[in-house]
Amino acid sequence: MQQESGRRSNRDRTEATRADLIRAARKLFTGKSYVETGTPEIVAEAGVTRGALYHHFADKQALFAAVVEQEAAAVAAEIDQASAPSLSAREALIAGSDAYLKAMRAPGRTRLLLLDGPAVLGRAAMDEIDNRHGNRSLREGLIAAMRAQPMTRLPAEALTVLLAAAFDRAALAIEAGGSAADYRAALIALMDGLSAAPLPSIRPAPSR
Amino acid sequence: MQQESGRRSNRDRTEATRADLIRAARKLFTGKSYVETGTPEIVAEAGVTRGALYHHFADKQALFAAVVEQEAAAVAAEIDQASAPSLSAREALIAGSDAYLKAMRAPGRTRLLLLDGPAVLGRAAMDEIDNRHGNRSLREGLIAAMRAQPMTRLPAEALTVLLAAAFDRAALAIEAGGSAADYRAALIALMDGLSAAPLPSIRPAPSR
DNA sequence: CATCCAACATACAGTCTGTATGTAAGTGCA
DNA sequence: TGCACTTACATACAGACTGTATGTTGGATG
């Protein structure tokens, strides 16, 4: 067995230090913004030195990316956990919406995932993270709901992206004090509209 | 008449210097990100010193806010200019959408207004700016379209906010290489769905 | 024309990021 | 088991940046 004090394997040390750093960074990044949080503060909170930080992460941005990654995974996990398999496509979408909005109420999450994340890592990187963890259930749910309807010949990928953006903005608005019921109703109306409307013909857009 | 060299009134000096700073900052903020752009670089580009900057603006963030403000106004102006008054509500909305997406193709605008803006100034400040310049035509158009339909009893404000978010994301996606036609179709589908669907009854959400 | 104030320029203090260097502890191999 | 090598840090340093304080010049003003 292991001695409880010294005598830790290198792998264990790495894992523990990285976890400490991410935990400390998460706490601070959710309290203040990314720019307002300095690495000296982070390492103080984590109980290590800046040397450890720059040994495990390429730079401050990489540490931030790790925090975002973990947080996105946490949100996805909460949503998956809330999904009951026995629902209709529409019910499942609504359940997923509620789970998402609830998950985003965790303090600081909107700043981390919706404000600083895109600005610091870029939209492309955030899209990649979103597509890896979350958004999967939303896209699948949408496609299922649309497939249930006969005539909707619409770009599913674009619709998914736009609806995800609406979800994000709803989370921000609710956190800012907006009516959760209103935003919920608006989101559902947007989704319902997709599978119901017999669309009028659309002329192509002017190219530029 | 004015001598072309010296002999400028104080008001003129202020106006010119502020304009130079905003112009230089805009150029750099759209090229790199807010954090990557330093005030020494900005004042060099503007041909003044940092003293002038901090005389006219409280801090770097205030200068950024001025740039965002001006850019939002420019976008709104482009949209207003493109709107023909003789269209139906739906046609007007589509024309506005096209004008918005076209306006957002100006290089760096998405970063300025959609990425760095919210992160640096906060969502609340960006909402205030959006509501002052742009978004007005979108909200009015939406309300008009919804009023044309009898039974849509939906929170107009929330719907406007969510649709605006979808527009923003569409602009980002298109800039990232997404199909403009797809996103245009998806946006129109979202809007059309609102005024067409006889909504199924919705149960209230669990409070938390 | 003398005073005052706005519009800057210059100098400085503090902080931050990233890197380079040093050290102790773990790991692999003969 | 002992030794070479590498990993996991800590410390020290260089450069840059932000905001402020101070100085200076040229309009405005009575």
UniProtKB/TrEMBL annotation, chains A, B:
InterPro entries in alphabetical order: Homeodomain-like_sf, HTH-type_TetR-like_transc_reg, HTH_TetR, Rv0078-like_C
A matching Pfam family? TetR_C_41
Residue intervals annotated as DNA-binding region are: 38-57
Q: What is this protein's name?
A: Helix-turn-helix domain containing protein
Is NAD one of the keywords UniProt gives this record?
no
Organism the protein comes from:
Mesorhizobium argentiipisi
Q: Which residues form the HTH tetR-type domain?
A: 15-75
Matching PANTHER family: HTH-TYPE TRANSCRIPTIONAL REGULATOR BETI (PTHR30055:SF234), HTH-TYPE TRANSCRIPTIONAL REGULATOR RUTR (PTHR30055)
Keywords annotated in UniProt:
DNA-binding, Transcription, Transcription regulation
PROSITE patterns attached to this UniProt entry: HTH_TETR_2 (PS50977)
Q: According to the lineage, what is the superkingdom? A: Bacteria
